Amino acid sequence: MDFTIYHYLIPVGSMIALAMGASWISSKGDFSLNVFLSCLAIGIPLLIWTGALSVMAIPVAVGIMILMLFSGKEGASSE
Amino acid sequence: MSLKTIVVPPETSLANRQKIFVVFISVFFLIVIALPFLSISATAGPFTPYNVIKYNESLYQHTGAIDNPDEISGGLGVQLEAADFTDNWEGDWASEVIHYYGGSLWDGTTHNTTPGYLWANGFTDITYSGNSISVETDDYVLDYIKIVVVYCYSSAFRAEGNLSYCINYTEDDGDFDQADPRQGYNWNYSGNFSYRETPIEEYMTDDYVYAYSYDITDLENWNISMIHSTEFAVMFEFSNDGHHFWFDYIGIEWSVIYTGDNLELQYPWPELSDRLIIDSVLWMTFIMGVPVLLNSLIPTNGYIAGMSITLLITVVIEPSFFVVAVFGFASIGILMYKGR
Question: What is the DSSP letter of B269?
Fold first, then answer.
C-alpha cells in the first residue's frame, strides 16, 4: 500500500482549508481567529474518528481549545 | 512611470498578526503531518531493502485499531563474511575478509568432487527492527518459515544442492564457524540434531542472482523462541564443480500472524488507505461544509448554528461520534464565550 504524504495532506488539508474558509467568511474578508481554531478543534477529533489520525492527536485538539480560551479578544473583523 | 499612492497598512494591526498566526498554525500542522515520514527515513537505514519493504509495510497496518489478526513479516539472513572457498572450502570461516565472497569446488588446478557447504546460525544477532514481536508473547500464529540461500553467478550457471537445518545445535558440538560442518560436528549423523536434508526450489531469479528456499513450516512445531535461538542452524550443501559462486547469504525468512491487540505503536499516525481518505473528506464536507455555508449568510452565528446542527445530526445517526460531538460543543461554547 502506498504510504505517501499525500495521504495525510488530503484530509488534513481539507480540514485546514475549511477552517480558513470559515474564518475568512465569518469576518468579511479577514480572519476570525476563534472560528479558525474552532474548526481545527472539531476537525482533529473528526479525523481521529474517521481513522485518518490516531488518538495521539487528541492533545493537539485540547491545546487548540485552551488556546481559544486564552487568546485575546476575537477582533478579527476590523470594522 | 506614473506615480501612485502607496498605502502601507500598519504592520502591527490585529488583523495582520492574526494572519501571521494562522499561517504559523498551518505550517505547524504540515510539519506535524510530515513527522512520520521523517521517522521512516530515520529507521530504514539498518535494514536491507527487502526487510524495509516487508517489515515496515506490515508495521503500519498495526498502528490503528486492530480488528483482525494481521501479518508481521521478518526477512533475515546471515551474511557470510569469510567463505573463501576458492582457496580451501574447509578453510577458516572465522577470519575476517569480505562479503560476497564465493564458493567453488575449483581449487585452482582441479575440481574437487566433494560437496561444499554453507552454514550459519546465531539468527538472534540479526537486528531487523525495534518493533519486532516479543518472544514472550503468545499472541501470534506462525505463518511460514523458510530456509533460504541467495547467491550470484556470472552466467546462467546454477548451484545445485540441498538446504538443511537443525534446531538444537549446542556449543558442545564445537565451534560452529570453523571447518567442515559435517565432519566437525556430526551434523549428518548425530542423534542430537534434527537434521533434515531437503530439496531446494528456486523462487526468485535476477540476471545473475539466484535464491533458493525451502518451506519448513510443517516440519516442526515452531515458535518464535526457536527461530531466535542460537541452536537453530541452516546449511546449504552444493555439489556443482563450477567455478565461483558468489554467495550473498544463507538464512531464514519467516512470517507470523499477530493476533493480539496491544502491539506497541511507534508512530501516532496510521497508514491511510484511499478509502479512508475518501471517507474522511466526505465526513469533513458534511459536518463542516454546512457551517461554512451558513457562516456566509450570518457570520460567526451561522457557523455556530450550522455546526451545532450537524453535530446533533451526526451523533444521532452515528453514536460513536459522541466524543467528537463533545469536543465540538465545547469548542462552540468557547467560541460563543470568546468569539464575539
Answer: S
Grid coordinates representing B111 are 575440481
Distance CA B18, CA A29 (A): 13
Element (H, E) at B74: strand B70-79
CA distance A78 to chain B (A): 7
Q: Which of A26, A25, A2 is nearest to B276 (CA)?
A: A2
A-chain residues within 8 Å CB-CB of B60?
3
Model pTM? 0.41
Cβ atoms A35, B295 nearer than 8 A: yes
d(CA B166, CA A59): 51
How far are the Cα atoms of B65, B89, B115, B225, B237 from residue B160, in angstroms, in the given order? 47, 16, 10, 31, 8
Cell numbers found for residue B275: 478509502
Nearest CA in chain A to B29: A12
Domain boundaries, chain B: 49-258, 274-340
CB contact under 8 A, A42 and B15: no
Q: Residue B228 burial by CB count (10 A; 0-12/13-18/19+): exposed, middle or buried?
A: middle
> Is B316 near chain A, with CB under 8 Å?
no
Q: Nearest to residue B216, comparing CAs of B146, B123, B143?
A: B146
What count of CB pairs under 8 Å joins A to B?
Answer: 183
Dihedral angle sign, alpha carbons of residues B77, B78, B81, B86: negative
Q: What is the pLDDT of residues A25-55, one digit of tens each?
A: 877 666 778 888 888 889 989 988 887 777 7
| Alpha-carbon separation of residue B167 from B144, B148, B213, B222, B228 (angstroms) | 16, 15, 17, 10, 10
Q: Does A74 touch chain B (CB under 8 A)?
A: yes
| Tens-place pLDDT, residues B83-137 | 333 322 222 222 222 223 344 444 445 555 555 666 666 554 333 333 344 444 5
B64 contacts A49? CB cut-off 8 A = no
Identify the H or E element spanning A5. Answer: helix A5-26
B174, B184 contact by CB (below 8 A): yes
User: ipTM of this predicted complex?
Assistant: 0.83
Backbone angles phi, psi at B286, to 5 degrees: -65, -45
Residues B57 and A1: beta-carbon distance below 8 Å:
yes
